[in-house]
Design a protein that fits this description.
about 110 residues, alpha/beta, Rossmann fold
């Protein structure tokens, strides 16, 4: 099912500095569209000896929690949502974009902790 009015934005641990979320929020306000914020944890990180899955999961949950708090501080009734997913970020975001159909916003990748 496609919802033509949803704006999808991918975020990572550097979401505050990347500008992608703020740009997407401005676009959502202009279009009167809800925003769907997706943070994707690279699944292969969960299987490396250098990372503890619990630490990755905790850090990812913190990113989503921080974004939710940021969204909650905005005066809007657009129904913005967040999602935490695992997989290859580009593939997951492309799949979600096909589902939502309107606009996909991303910033530079790799500046965050995961």
């Amino acid at each position: 099912m496609t919802d033509e009015s949803v704006i999808l934005v991918g975020v990572d641990g550097s979401w505050r500095a990347s500008g992608a979320l703020e740009w997407a929020l401005q676009e959502a306000d202009l279009q009167g569209s809800p925003l769907r914020v997706v943070h994707v944890v690279e699944e292969r990180l969960r299987r490396t000896p250098y990372w503890e899955p619990a630490v990755i999961d905790e850090a990812a949950a913190k990113v989503v929690e921080d974004v939710e708090e940021h969204l909650g501080n905005r005066d809007t009734e657009l129904g913005h949502t967040t999602e935490l997913a695992a997989g290859h970020p580009a593939s997951v975001l492309a799949d979600r974009a096909r589902e939502t159909g309107n606009l996909l916003v991303v910033g530079p990748r790799g500046a965050g902790p995961h």
